[in-house]
Amino acid sequence: METPKAERPDRAPLLERAVVAVALWVILLGFVGSVIAWLGAWIPVVGFTTALVTAAVAARLSGRLPRPAGRPLGAAAAGALVVGVLAVTVWTGVTHSEQVLPRRDSASYLQATIYLAETGSRPVSVPAELIGGPETLAEDGLTLEAPAFYEIGSPADPSVQPQFMPGPALVYSLPWWAGGATATLWAPAVMGGLGLLAIGLLAARVVGPWAAAPAALLVGACFPWLHTARSTYSEPLAGLTLAAGFLALTLLVRAAEDTADGDHADARRARLSGAAVVAGALIGGTAIVRIDALRETMLLIPVAALLLARGRQWARPLLVGSIGTTLAGFAVAGVMSWRYLGEIGGSLVPLVGLVLAMSVVSWWLLRRARAGWALPAWVAARLPAVLAGGAVIIGVLLALRPLFLTTRQDPRDPGAMYVARMQAELGLPIDGGRTYAEDSVGWLSWWIGPAALVIALVALAVLAHRLGTWWTKGGALPAWGAALFVTTGSTLLTLVRPGITPDHPWADRRLLIALPLALVLCVAAAWWAGGRARGRWGSAAGATVLVVLLAVTAIPTALATWPHRAERVEAGGLAAAATYCESLERGDVVLAVDDWAVNHWTQITRGMCGVPAIATTGRLRDDPDQVLAAARRLDDRVRAHGGRVLLVAHREPQTLQDLGATDVRVVLDTELMEDPHALTERPERLDPLRLVVWTGRVPR
What average pLDDT score do residues 270-297 get? Predict the structure, then answer.
């Protein structure tokens, strides 16, 4: 006899607990590991021990997840989800990038990982005697600084501080120790796959069990997600922690609104409080991976205020968890990445101001609500329609912005200068101050198609109407309500101001909340429409509507990703770095003497090759005579300590010839395929990247 539907085993809780445990582990490892790395003790035995201890704690904390009632995720639906996620993970891993030269953030994260794994410290102290003594960095024009790596400290006691948050380097250092470069470059695919699993489980809870696999597959096949999961970006880790956080938040809401829960009031309150802290910590703790997770914490503040106004006291521990971990992330940044905070201050300070303003307004409105204030009856009656109409109007206005708006920034900004160079190379009008932010909705349509955006917008409007109805009439809050508010708000802020140089596909990383949101909304719309059609016209009609609506989203997504299905960005980068390192001799101190050498090889030299490296500043490089004089003084100091200076130039030997260098030779000559640089169209190919490195000795 067939088991009744309500009694079928539910596979969701085990998968949910597993994915939340891994996400919590990422956050705990990031915070604990940061302290250890700051103390200079991040060595393999300590790192793996910390990983095991934090994994045990994370597994224990994941047990606080509630198990709300709902349609069970049966074995077949769970199997489809797991198989789909595994397939995407393997595809992503097999086609992983080898972005080793710090040209993009992924390579910067990889170099920070290697530097941490090999030195055990962050920041990394550089003994002055290895680079010729304190006089070297006291000299104008010589520096340890390179892209994504700052020089801090004094000339007598210098250090190198990596740019970004320490979380990714700490996580990726474990596979570096365990399996070297190959294991490390597979790690983002694994973390991205776990993020897809969390998204699929979320879809199973809010749409239906069989919606899990299509939702995960659509997101995993969407190129911006695939692109970042192929490289050591922070996005695969942040995608996991945020997706797990929204899943935990959804489970929390559903359990809290379950009026059939027969637990004792105190036990129920304690259980919900523990789950709320976990959900908040997952969302806010993403700050240890990406500092801009402040945005999601900010959006939880009005959510919590609205929930508290409706008597949901578990919103208080939700805020405690999110704000506490966010502040902890900023504390780590203030100690270990303070140069980075200063660099992004132009974007971060307004966001902090917005957080403070939103907190004050939410607090004031909550006080008013507790004092008895409520929306006027005529406003409350129209609230659902206003929210639905507002969603549509805002979406349409964002899409139409290119017709009436051109967004710009300060043309003297380094990013604007880079855009101007790209415009010249692409044959576009030179206007470096353009940010192209008005085209952000168009960026979404590149990857999933305009029809999917329309479907997602209509679905969002319908759900906004339901939230307005809940606020007006009361009752149970929809399980998806809080997560939808935060993800929609985050998407809106991103579309209004992406805050990134619009160099695609690199810039498409900013869409990694917007695109999954749109795709899950499309899946939800397909399931809803299919269910309505089945109820009215029968199973065949329902299946047809479901398949057609899924195809409207899936086909454009697949076609956009197809040109990139097998590409491996900068494959051969590891071999190129190894060839370069083999050319260095014992006792060498590298001096990078042109722009490309400074940008590409300074950190590889000291991180991957284990050889001291010094960069020349742009002002010094403008005068070859001054470069030669500085190189000779440096060589004298280094020889006094038993070494020799090796001059390194990239692309051509002319720089070394102008310096009169001796023993000039080419030590690397290869070609990789890199991401294209596009501003106004969807990238669909890789471009060649020639790497030629010349070395020479200082003339005596």
Answer: 94
Distance CA 185, CA 435 (A): 31
- Asked if pLDDT for residue 382 goes beyond 60, the answer is yes
pLDDT at 642 over 70: yes
CB-CB contact of 220 with 226 (8 Å): yes
Report which secondary-structure segment, H or E, holds 236. helix 235-256
Which tokens is 287 given?
A: 């700050």
Instruction: Tell me the pTM.
Output: 0.95
Judge whether 58 and 25 are in contact, CB under 8 Å.
Answer: yes
Contacts of 171 (CB under 8 A, 6+ apart): 26, 29, 30, 187, 191, 237
How far, in Å, CA of 161 to CA of 148, rounded?
Answer: 9
Retrieve residue 309's tokens.
């106004």
533 vs 543: CA distance, rounded Å: 8
Instruction: Work out whether strand 149-154 and strand 142-143 pair parallel, antiparallel, or are unpaired.
Output: unpaired
How far lies 621's CA from each of 458, 592, 606, 615, 628, in Å?
Answer: 56, 10, 21, 10, 10
234 with 167: CB under 8 angstroms? Answer: yes
Residue 151 CA to residue 162 CA, distance in Å, equals 9
The per-residue DSSP string of 424-480 comes to: HHHT----TTB--GGGHHHHHHHHH-HHHHHHHHHHHHHHHHHHHHHHHH-SPPPTT
Buried b vs exposed e over 448-465: b needs ≥16 C-beta within 10 Å? bbeebbbbbbbbbbebbb
CB count, 10 Å around CB of 400? 12
Angle at 694 between CA 614 and CA 612, to 5 degrees: 25
Angle made by CA atoms 475, 245, 222, in degrees to the nearest 5: 105
How many other C-beta atoms are found inside a 10 Å radius of the C-beta of residue 82?
18
Distance CA 502, CA 677 (A): 9
User: For residue 261, what pLDDT band results from cuts at 50, 70 and 90?
Assistant: low
Token couple for 260: 């059939």
Chain center to CA of 99? 16
Is the pLDDT assigned to residue 653 strictly greater than 50? yes
Write out the two tokens for 240: 């996991």
Euclidean distance between CA atoms 160 and 211, whole angstroms: 48
Nearest to 232 by CA among 172, 165, 292: 172
- Strands 157-162 vs 124-125: parallel, antiparallel or unpaired: antiparallel
Kind of pairing between the strands at 588-592 and 124-125: unpaired
Instruction: Using CA atoms of 340, 341, 343, 345 in order, give the dihedral in degrees to the nearest 10.
Output: 160
Instruction: Tell me if 123 sits within 8 A of 115, measured CB to CB.
Output: no
Range from 62-71, 247-256, 672-681 carrying the lowest mean pLDDT: 62-71
Per-residue pLDDT tens digits for 140-190: 999 999 999 999 999 999 999 999 999 999 999 999 999 999 999 999 999
Take residue 587 and report the two structure tokens written for it.
Answer: 């006792």
Q: Classify strands 662-674 and 142-143 as parallel, antiparallel or unpaired.
A: unpaired
Is the confidence at residue 647, as pLDDT, over 50? yes
